[in-house]
Amino acid sequence: MAPSWGHPNLYLGEIFNMAAAGISAPQSQDAAIGQTGAAEFGAPKKYTTESIVGLAVLGLAIAWIIWSFASGPTLFLQVLTIGLSNGALYALIALGYTMVYGIIELINFAHGDLFMLGSVVGAIFLEQWVGQKSSSATAWLWLAATMIFAMAACALLNVVIEKLAYRRLRNAPKLAPLITAVGVSFILQNIGIQLNGSAPHSRSSVLPKTSISVGSIDIRIKYIVVVAVTIPLLLLMTWIVQKTRIGKAMRAAAQDRDASLLMGINVDRVISFTFALGGALAGAAGVLFVQVNEQTRYDAGFRLGLIAFTAAVLGGVGNLLGAVVGGVLIGVIQSLNDGAPHFLGQKWTQTVMFSILIIMVIFRPGGIFGANQQEKV
Amino acid sequence: MSDMPNTPTAVRGGGKAPVLTITDLHVYYGNIAAVKGISLEVFEGEIVTLIGANGAGKSTTMRTISGLLKPRKGEIVFEGEKVSGLRGNEVAARGIAQSPEGRRIFPRMTVLENLELGAFLRKDKAEIPVDMERVFELFPRLKERIAQKGGTLSGGEQQMLAMGRALMAQPRLLLLDEPSMGLAPVLVDVVFEIIERVNAQGTTILLVEQNALAALNIGDYAYVLETGHIGLQGPAADLADNEEVRNAYLGLA
After folding, report:
1. In terms of domains, do B183 and B63 share one?
2. Which CATH number do you get for residue A311?
3. Domain tally, chain A
4. Minimum distance, in Å, between the CA of residue B38 and any CA atom of chain A
5. With an 8 Å Cβ cutoff, is B55 touching chain A?
6. Cα separation, A208 vs A138, whole angstroms
7. pTM assigned to the model
8. Domain containing A94: what range?
């Protein structure tokens, strides 16, 4: 018998296949990451009943959207801008889920609550410490400082959480860190209660309350700001992951941790860095969230976290581009259902969103980008 | 156990201290002992081969040297410094590179990126392209596939990439774990030829192989592992002639 201890089964299986085939067929070593293996079964080449139903559902959805647009283009587009702004926030949070999953295969259930703490400490910083409550040039500068503060705080907190709670469970059965993450989630919520109170706390936005008009569409400034802040953050993150030395190390560690160690990559540090990056994005999302919604609540992380997680699954967990696309998609679907003509209305929004998640998992378990594996971290 | 006299180590290495010394190494997976008291030495410039059946502890030994596994007992000393207990990346930083069992190339990175990662710790950035050319000389096939993702390469190409990647670190000790595994017979010969060339260029090599005959042919000194401990050892050529080895590992009764 080959020494099988400590090797993932798949790895051994692969060696077995190689030995059987003489020369191996190239196989992805970590097909276990994400549901990519399953995706191949979920997206068969031939048209099966399932795929026909899936395409029919997709066709129906597109027809519905066109119908809605045709009935009231102005309202539709106006709602769409809100959706894009919400989607940008979801994307920022979803990235934290997906990066952590990509590198240590942990669904970090505490991530939504980290976002919540980002919103709370950001609001406390801006309102209570520096006393900025209305729109002015100074207030915008302080808002920028708040962003940096909340990003740094969440990055640091996420690194500490990983070090204290997840690191020593890295080689434990998968369920152990998962349950730990749920526990951390409760701890963070309780910190949120301490800082914010158990009731929603209303906050003031320092962004202008006005809109600008593009043709017949009025777009609120705050939505533009959210998108305008998110895009450079996403570009910066892409640059870090694709071009920098630590980014390369992140991608390597996500693909094969042992091999990365053999290359001399300090995998512990890379994982810390990943948590820092995810935390910083959650902190930024928290600050933007307060500016848009003008309130903080200790349980905001649960709902937002769930939505962002849905976005990550939609895009294919572990896939960076997928998280962004999934986030924007969820944001747009949500807002269209909330406000666009012929949709079901706000009270059905959660149902619609999570139905989409279920349909997605049934027909494309690997997510939108699951089948053709893009870069994963 | 051994019916042949152990060659005194003083003969090896021309009186110099060994590059790598493993003393009484014990490695466990949970409660199961995989390596039970191995001692071995590798001298500068040598190709030392480690042969043995499946489950004898060859790959476990290699993984432990590279710091991927922690020994329960025993010591690994590289160039006078204790490296057992260091983490994998720290061992790599000391100058030990490994082409691991199963190749473990990065499947979603290109050949070029894989090779660049091999040189991850190097400070002499200007020298890296020179070494890459050297790797392409050894494995011209890799140059043809330079922009291809590692996961799309054939088994033989992946093996070349794993070796090339390890060479990119400019290691002073190169660990090769089953470099011929799963390869077509034609490629096996090529791989062993390349191992000899790399060694001739000055790299000390510790080689684990199931293909015992080929490994003994290119090796200077050899150890035979039997379920976690060393059964036989001696100059590779002597072991190749040894009755016991011929029976058990070479199938040449």
Report:
1. yes
2. 1.10.3470
3. 1
4. 17
5. yes
6. 13
7. 0.85
8. 74-210+241-363
